[in-house]
Amino acid sequence: MPDLNLKDIEADDLGRRLKGMGVNLLCPDPLTYAPELSRIMALKLIRVDAFFALLSWKSPPEINTLIQIHADKSYANNPYHACLKEAEMRGVGVELRLFDVDPDAAVSRAEATDGWHVLQHPVDKEHGIREAFILDPMGYCWVPSVPLADGKSA
Questions:
Q1: Domain 89-154 coded CATH 3.10.180.10
Q2: Sheet containing 141-147: order of strands
Q3: What is the pLDDT of residues 33-78, one digit of tens each?
Q4: What is the CATH number of domain 1-87?
């Protein structure tokens, strides 16, 4: 597939090209949330406006490694919209795992940002990764991780 300019791609063209599984997060204000998420998790912010944002953690971005963020108002005609009004906190029970994202750096950035809460500081795990758990202002739980050098915990 030729390189895609995802910054300028039209929504209907993007939709036809999506493959695999996508992550779509809802929030009141993508203009604030998406750049903050991009900075803390070291993601590439491809585009953002008042209704929609597109991020990737691969560079160059591939069509199957995208995170989409939609404004609540863009879901007004979606059957899921009613659930948003009733939810105390979004994202409970979902872990969004970002592999090859430095958990120590992500925790440092999160601790310096209002509304972000570190649930677990970076820990070397027995399954060969170092990971942290970070709760964002929307209630989504992000788990940045990197593989351990020898594949075993310290």
A1: yes
A2: 95-99, 141-147, 129-135, 117-124
A3: 999 999 999 998 989 999 999 998 766 666 667 888 899 888 888 8
A4: 3.10.180
